[in-house]
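Lab notebook, bench 4. Continuing the backlog of folding jobs that were queued last week. Each job is logged with the same field layout so the records can be merged later without manual cleanup. Today's entry covers Acetoin utilization protein AcuC, a 395-residue chain. Filled in by technician R.K.

JOB TYPE: sequence-to-structure
TARGET: Acetoin utilization protein AcuC
LENGTH: 395
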Amino acid sequence: MVDTRCALQLFWDEAATAYDFGPGHPMDPTRLALTMRLVESLGLARDPAVTVRSAPAAGESTLRLVHSAGYIEAVKRAAADPTGEDAPHGLGTDDNWTFPGLHTASALIAGQSVAAAEAVWRGETPHAVNFTGGLHHAMPDTASGFCIYNDPALAIARLLELGAERVAYVDVDVHHGDGVQQAFWNDPRVLTVSLHESPATLFPQTGWSTETGGPDAPGTAANLPLPAGTGDAGWLRAFHALVPELLAAFRPQVLVTQHGADTHVEDPLAHLAVSLDAQRVIAESIHHLAHEHAEGRWVATGGGGYAVVDVVPRAWTHLVATAAGRPVDPATETPEDWRAEVFRLTRQQAPMRMTDGATPDWKDFHDGGYDPGDRLDQAILAARRAVLPHHGLMP
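JOB STATUS: finished
OUTPUT FIELD FOLLOWS
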């Protein structure tokens, strides 16, 4: 039985809240501040198992592990002149507004994820979390989907630079982890797995099950697009039908994960119907998988999530608590001082408990039978057929 009471380095720098596209943009940095305040109010930051630390911003040599020199210069120019538009680099567009701290804040977030990866690889800590990160859409030469620098890809690239031979990336954001997949499309050392809403109904319109990796890395990209409206039982069924088998076959030395909270039923930008409680279950499952298949080495990031008060702070606080081996009872009341801070910052009423009141359960795909008329089961089987044979597994 795995001992889940683990040490954790939690990467946090208040300056990361300067990643702020401005009023009216969905990527509200208040969600980051409220997450850290909840972590603190519940006593997790003071727990002996948890070390809260920050890291310097990623320098240009680090950013160039994934991004082109021309793109980095374009980001710096956009920060110096935020009134312009650089459409070829995706800057100043409808999604990726520019602001004076664009490069500095983006590089700072990237630096936290890279340092988290370094700490885990060097054995300083088994687990590390940077919930300010998870900006998985940024491409080598282009900003995309509110993402300027792709910190999960940079963390993976740094692990490879340090000598890792097999890194697995698991992305449970509602949107396809396209930027990370693209960065390692033809690299057999990296397995990317993404569960997301179907590209037929959601940005970035990629992540079909037929996307399985480049000619030198067949089967190292796995995608499971979920029908709009998928809830807890379907989401958990899909995850467990694909991810554990792939990780067991790939045998990663490190597990890097992205935990976008935008799968939630209340998220305003997507169409899944997942509860906070199912998100907590997935975090727990990933924790166990890290111990089973990656010798406990686990680097976790945040990601999307636009229900700023009701969902994101609780979801990522559960992630932190799970990674620290100090899970928070879902029935726990949110602290009064945190609720007061929520009202001060947003003039909204905070949720009263660390739960949505759901009891997530699912039918195992292997034991529960395949329903050929069910759209979810069709998606699961398509993903398994596309990728498992590349790993010597039966679909």
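OBSERVATION: The domain at 8-391 is CATH 3.40.800.20 (Arginase; Chain A).
SIGNED: R.K.
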